[in-house]
What does this fold into?
Amino acid sequence: MIQRPLAIRGGLVAFPSEGEVRAADLLIQDGRIAAIVAPGAALPEEAELVGANDRLIMPGLVNAHTHSHLAIAKGVSRAWTLELHLHNGPWTGGGQNLADRHLLAQASAAEMLLKGCTACYDLVLELPQPSPDGMFATAAGYIDAGMRAVVAPMLADRTFWQAIPGLRDALPDHARAEIDTIRMAGVDANLEACERMLREWPHDRLGVRPGLAPTIPLHCSDAFWTGARALANAHGAPMHAHLAESKIQAIAGRARYGMSLTAHLDALGILGPDFTAAHGIWLDDADLELLARRGCSVAHNPSSNFRLGSGIANVPAMVAAGVRVGLGSDACSCSDHQNLFEVMRLACYLSRTASFDPDDWLSPRDVFEMATCGSARALGLHEITGDIRPGLAADLVFLDLGSVNFTPLNDPLYQLVFAEEGRSITRVMVGGRTVVEDGRLTTIDYPALRARLNDRAREIFAANAPRKEMLAAIEPFVKHFCVGLAQGRLELAESVAP
Ligand SMILES: [Zn+2]
It folds into this structure.
């Protein structure tokens, strides 16, 4: 369908790369920003007028780290650390079928679009290994919702209990026998599925493209890592992994590899500009220097880090080292929401814990840039989205300046970061197509989606109940071991994690 050009007139426009808000009119042609002109300047007469009086227009936010398979698990996690979250993963994120892939991508997309996010990096888990059809269906869920995404299967050839040195052996015999019934597929079967997914990807890669996510360094053998890197290189697919998310991972990494997780990945040739490290809490100066030198991005997930008690990522130190930073929500099981406004605000506040000198703090401009351009760079979509510039896609969010969050209007950018939570959104466009209007999704039948999600949550969690019970019985042993391990000594440069 050929879309008429659009003339968006009368609004204030927030430009993240310039850190500036000013009045401007936009011409949208073929789904892209064709021109940015002074208010009232001439635009082609055939363009359809989109009135933006009393509106703040910003680029769509980009979620640099989420997991759609866990969109089923809002409000499910208890007082779990990352390790207990992983221990419970087989029931919180397992037992899903192929139809659930599309459903949960739609669930994720619905929440993100309603909250002003137009692209995401989705790390999807299928057990015991990913399937090309599952990833294609996830992608279709985003495409049908009218949202952009990188869809990356989560890869592992070790289970959580095998990944932490000493954990499996520390369990009582009956518990070890139980968790040994849960297995991951081998390296060859995993890589074969990934190769087929990358080769047969059926979707337009400007909309949704494939990536690869060896999920956690300790969960993947070296052969798996190097095999995934070779595939990523051959197919131009970006890579993403959780890196030093918990202190336990950092300690266990040194125990297993005799060096930091970051140094280990670098020794395997994994790090590069197409690599995104999620969390990166327990990194030292040498790690940050390495990530910066290789051009890697970090996906900072402050709400998840709080929810799991993982620690505080020292983002000002990352920025000072030259690491690119994007912002993510992480999964609905470990932050319960996918709200990048909330994430921007938390990122800004948290940076104040790293230094008594306000010059070191992240500014609203910094975190706005991270949640747009920075995340888009992590997705490898920065040539398409994440900013307002001629030539980029018209992925735009309109906010009502009459809302309580912007009243009185003193500083739109400060109020966007410190006051907004998504309630002021009136319209969301992706590629010039309106996907949210007056607070409603135009691409998704939300009542039907809601009904199916509630049904599937009931069915899946009922079917997973025996596994939940089995894991709950073993949880005290895992907790005891992990709490002990986390109290171990970790030599990190003083300036980084507390
Ligand atoms: Zn994650």
Q: What stands out?
A: The first strand starts at residue 6 and ends at 9. Residues 65, 67, 123, 242, 278, 330-331 surround zinc ion (CB under 6 Å). The mean pLDDT is 96. Residues 1-498 form a domain with the TIM Barrel fold (CATH 3.20.20.140).
